[in-house]
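Entry:
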Amino acid sequence: MTEAEEIVFIANEMSKRIGPSSGLNGTLKFDFEGKGCVYLDGKSSPNTVSNDNRAADCTITVSLDTFKKMVARELDGTTAFMQGKLRVAGDMALAMKLGPILEKAAG
């Protein structure tokens, strides 16, 4: 699977696993270092997940490899942030909700 296909797969799986309510109450974008993105709209009802590259309340820039490690619980978001493997722009309060969202995404 190519990286672009993996990013589409991630959006589809997140949409299925998060369901109609993420508890996010904001918009969050995972930017995979310019290779694609996953956009979670936690303001809409029901919540939506897509590969749209739209402005978000919080944008998390991370490599696909680091994201997969976080979902697999091999790396925690705080550690990734402290190591410079994850960058946050925008609303830090939304970034703090990352753990529960990744747990839902992991299933």
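The longest helix spans residues 3-18.
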